[in-house]
Automatic annotation (TrEMBL):
GO MF annotations, alphabetized: ATP binding; hydrolase activity; RNA helicase activity; RNA strand annealing activity
Function of the protein: DEAD-box RNA helicase involved in various cellular processes at low temperature, including ribosome biogenesis, mRNA degradation and translation initiation.
Highest taxon, organism lineage: Bacteria
Subcellular location: Cytoplasm
Name the record gives this protein: ATP-dependent RNA helicase DeaD
Keywords: ATP-binding, Cytoplasm, Helicase, Hydrolase, Nucleotide-binding, RNA-binding, Stress response
Protein's organism: Zoogloea oleivorans
Length: 614
């Protein structure tokens, strides 16, 4: 009987990979890692059945990296994934695991990204390609992706590729890469179509079936907040102020640098906070944990690695400031609260582009995560006033105030002031560094812009699926959007246009993701040759404008500013985008047939008969 594998150093992996795993904080292989890594290192094909969140990315990435020859710049590993989000996630995992392998390069390729950029990156060479089937096919037909040296092929989430209609594309690729390769197919379920592919293309595969054991403690209340990066800090401080039964918190971020920066910002706002990361000595680390236990500290900002093993009963909240990339990390994180039978709170910050990670966590934990409504300015002010009243009541009950009564009586007599005015002045002095009332900038509260967290996901934006009435009333909807909320929209100019290969979707994505502006606040977009115009709220705060000036579309800074009257009135010469956020009526003119970039796609989507255009 084979002894169980309890440590990664029991696996026959290269020293750089083991060093990277130690730095990341991986200690014990998950069941699928312990089962698959030895088989893949031995050269076997694998047919793996495992849910998302069981650690399968490391199960195939580590043995694949172990066999990569860094002296060769041609692709040696190909990973096919159903979505661009998963492709990016897998590529990032490869990069983390290979952090101690100098010269290693992984390249994600997927639809929606500039073909020019991908061609340039491919020309530089990559050891591992992670891509969606359609875009991999495009590059294979262009001859821009040579897979003759592929030694390892990974099919990740094969059942999802089947569900999305990619299985024919996958087989097209499998038929055109070297037959002498190692193949690993992973799927959450094993429908007949997947088994047929496995039987046809895998050589005597070893079957590995792992049931997900990822669960979370029922005493932990789990909530998520839809919030963009620029607003995270303000959201965090509001939540810390209004949460009931708050005692202490661990705030998780992804990087060591972020622990230091966030801890300093929290300290500047009056919180007893400190960082905890892998660069700290064991003595410093122990001191931070001891301060958390004895209530000298209330907030610790930590990475996954540094927080492993923390057991402090008073931790009432775990805040996932940065959402983890894998569900096992999420479970480990929130396990720092709700210990020893106590109740706990776990709050997850989710940026608009990270919704797929939220869905993965819910599937893996088999528990829905409820939406959290961001506290408003008024709610925070009410909480501060209530706390101030409580402090005053406690002082009145417990302290001898005779001396101070004499001081106040003298002030009342000498200044001819009302006692209530003096009390108000003292309250101001006591709270001026932490005002009881949050200042009103006159701008919309960003809590309103996060209110969509509780709304269901929108249906597909394909105009063909919309009722005719909705399509015909698009202009009316756009006009209502211009009058939305606190004020009308203004037209801004951005320094990206058609010559930069920009699309309205690119512009909306950059604005929504970088500045946290919801699509309902984005009006009409017009594309011109070397610039574009976009309608946004006329009262955008300066900090949001600064973020948007630095944001990039197609590697081009937006450099946003109010459009001149001539630019604002010039609409017919532009190229308005199709439906969805920022929609505008189509300009008149003949309708052009749809074409894939560089190829003619026959009706029915038969990729096997596609030919490059001359």
């Amino acid at each position: 009987m084979t002894a169980p594998i309890e440590r990664f150093d029991q696996l026959d992996l290269q020293a750089p990979l083991l060093a990277a795993l130690t730095e990341i904080g991986y200690e014990t292989p998950s069941p699928i890692q312990a089962a698959c890594i030895p088989l893949l290192l031995a050269g076997n094909d694998i047919l793996g059945e495992a849910q998302t969140g069981t650690g399968k990315t490391a199960a195939f990435a580590l043995p694949a990296l172990d066999k990569v020859d860094l002296s060769k710049r041609n692709p040696q590993v190909l990973v096919l994934a159903p979505t661009r989000e998963l492709a990016i996630q897998v590529a990032e995992a490869f990069q983390r695991y290979a952090s101690k392998m100098p010269g290693f390069h992984v390249l994600p390729i997927y639809g929606g990204q500039s073909m020019v950029v991908q061609l340039r990156q491919l020309s530089r060479g990559a050891h591992v390609i992670v891509g969606t089937p359609g875009r991999v096919m495009d590059h294979m037909e262009r001859k821009s992706l040579n897979l003759d040296s592929i030694t390892t092929l990974i099919l990740d989430e094969a059942d999802e590729m089947l569900r999305m209609g990619f299985i024919d594309d996958v087989e097209w690729i499998l038929e055109r890469i070297p037959a002498e390769r190692q193949t690993a197919l992973f799927s959450a379920t094993m429908p007949d179509a997947i088994r047929r592919v496995a039987h046809r293309y895998l050589r005597d595969p070893k079957e590995v079936k792992i049931k997900s054991a990822t669960t979370t403690v029922s005493t932990i209340r789990q909530r998520f907040l839809q919030i963009a990066g620029p607003h995270k800090l303000d959201a965090l401080t509001r939540i810390l102020e209004v949460e009931d039964e708050f005692d202490a918190a661990i705030v998780f971020v992804r990087t060591k640098t972020a622990t230091v920066e966030l801890a300093e910002k929290l300290e500047a706002r009056g919180y007893a906070a400190a960082c905890l990361n892998g660069d700290m000595t064991q003595q410093l680390r122990e001191r931070v944990i001891e301060q958390l236990k004895n209530k000298t500290l209330d907030i610790v900002v930590a990475t996954d690695v540094a927080a492993r093993g923390i057991d402090v009963p008073r931790v009432s909240h775990v805040i996932n400031y940065d959402i983890p990339y894998d569900t096992e990390a999420y479970v480990h994180r929130i396990g720092r609260t709700g210990r020893a039978g106590r109740t706990g709170n776990a709050i997850l910050f989710v940026a608009p582009r990270e919704n797929h990670l939220l869905r993965q966590i819910e599937r893996a934990t088999r528990q829905p995560i409820e939406a959290l409504k961001l506290p408003s300015r008024e709610a925070v002010a009410d909480k501060r006033v209530a706390s101030f009243r409580q402090q005053v009541s406690e002082v009145l009950e417990s302290q001898d105030l005779a001396f101070f009564l004499d001081v106040i009586a003298g002030m009342e007599e000498n200044n001819d002031s009302d006692i209530r005015e003096i009390a108000a002045a003292l309250a101001y002095l006591a709270q001026k560094d932490r005002p009881l009332q949050m200042p009103d900038s006159g701008k919309p509260d960003f809590a309103q812009m996060s209110a969509s967290a509780a709304k269901p996901e929108r249906p597909a934006r394909d105009s063909r699926e919309q009722p005719r009435e909705a399509r015909e009333n698009r202009g009316e909807i756009l006009e209502r959007r211009r009058d939305y909320a606190e004020g009308r929209l203004a037209r801004y100019r951005i320094d990206v246009g058609r010559e930069h290969m920009a699309s309205p979707k690119d512009i909306v994505g950059a604005i929504a993701n970088e500045a946290g502006i919801e699509s309902r606040f984005i009006g009409q977009i017009n594309l011109f040759e070397d610039y574009s115009t976009v309608e946004l709220p006329s009262d955008l705060p300066n900090d949001i404008l600064q973020i948007l000036r630095r944001a990039r579309v197609r590697q081009q800074p937006l450099n946003i500013r109010l459009a001149s009257p001539e630019e604002a009135s010039r609409e017919r010469g532009g190229r308005p985008g199709p439906g969805g956020p920022g929609a505008a009526p189509r300009s008149a003119g003949p309708k052009k047939p749809f074409r894939m970039e560089g190829f003619d796609r026959p009706a029915g989507g038969d990729f096997k008969s596609r030919k490059p255009k001359p």
